Amino acid sequence: MSAEAERLARARLSHAVEPGDAKVADGVSRAGAVRMVEEILDDDSRPQLAARVRETDPVRVLAVAERAGIRFVTPADAEWPDQLDDLSHGQRVQGLGGSPVGLWVRGPMRLSELAESVAVVGSRSATSYGFDVASDIAASLVRAGSPLVSGAAFGIDQAAHRGALGAGGPTVAVLACGADRAYPATHRELIDHIGRHHAVVSEAPLGSTPTKVRFLARNRLIAALTRGTVLVEAAVRSGALNTAHWADVLSRVLMGVPGPVTSATSQGVHNQIRGGAAMLVASGQDVLELVGVSGQHLLPVPRGPERPHDRFALHEVRVLDAVPVAQGASALSIGRIAGVDERESQRVLDALAAAGLVHQGVDGWRLARPARS
């Protein structure tokens, strides 16, 4: 079977079949797109699908896409993101699954550049806290060389895209409608900007409108394209949790940003963290540490500010602890309490005095004022 025939068959299926149709995806993986088209046309159990496939002219579909500045990317193309192939082996979620037969892409960015990408998703009804956190994390990721992937929706999605753009990109918007459309319509300027400078991606046919099923199918692509997914604000019924579930199914890193315990908007995130599905993150650096190449973005162990006596050995700290606050004491009596002889006690006291922790008065040694705290 020629490569061109396979490509045309994939374009035909992409235009006629609903995104996430697991049966069709499995058939294409098993026998190829040309054979799958033949099977659909011979299958009396799905007459509506057969009619759509029969009526679709793939040459015309591809020509319309080309005029709109949109390309059709398939596994035969060099830019095909290999990580999507994991969908061919994964489970089904709400009946949806399988690797897409092709993707419609608007923009100069190659999909092969998404190997190190990270998704940031969350509530459409985001708070100012969520906006700030999503934007900051996205900016940190792209500065470190990880492309940002999201769905261009209200709330957290748009905050993540804008954070990435503000830091110089790159960012990719994965839509539940055709790549030639903008949803929500009020985000047309944002989506068109991403399409001009980065990439807008969709599995849905050109001109199609979003539906609930297409949103769910889109979510699996966001999870599959990326090394990990960050949840920023998601209520217990948030659609972002569907993306989180796909990340878990595909063995991607799932991360969650905690919010106020009183906020219903963060309850879904908290449940993911509490149940062990998501790792807690609070910054872009936290995310990079989890999704990066082993050892590439390791954070230093958090430590409090160093105090002068942190540099002393244990027996020297015992001497310091034995120095009285109010009434002075001799080196001998301090040494007895600390368990060292008088000579060692005197040596340590001199070192502590040089560090400003103790001082010697007419009545003996006592703590200096800073050391009392």
Structure description:
This protein is α/β, with parallel strands linked by helices. It folds into 2 domains: 60-291, Rossmann fold (3-Layer(aba) Sandwich); 314-367, Orthogonal Bundle (Arc Repressor Mutant, subunit A), CATH 1.10.10.10. The chain contains 15 helices and 11 strands. It has helices at residues 3-16, 22-31, 33-42, 47-55, 58-67, 128-143, 156-166, 188-197, 212-225, 240-249, 267-274, 284-291, 314-322, 331-338, 342-354, and strands spanning 70-73, 103-106, 118-122, 148-150, 171-175, 199-202, 228-232, 253-257, 279-280, 358-361, 364-367. The strands form 2 sheets. The protein has a 9-stranded mixed beta sheet, sandwiched between helices. Helix 10 links the parallel strand 7 (228-232) and strand 8. Helix 6 crosses helix 12 (284-291). The longest helix is centred in the middle third of the chain and has 16 residues, at 128-143. The model has no long low-confidence stretch (mean pLDDT 93).
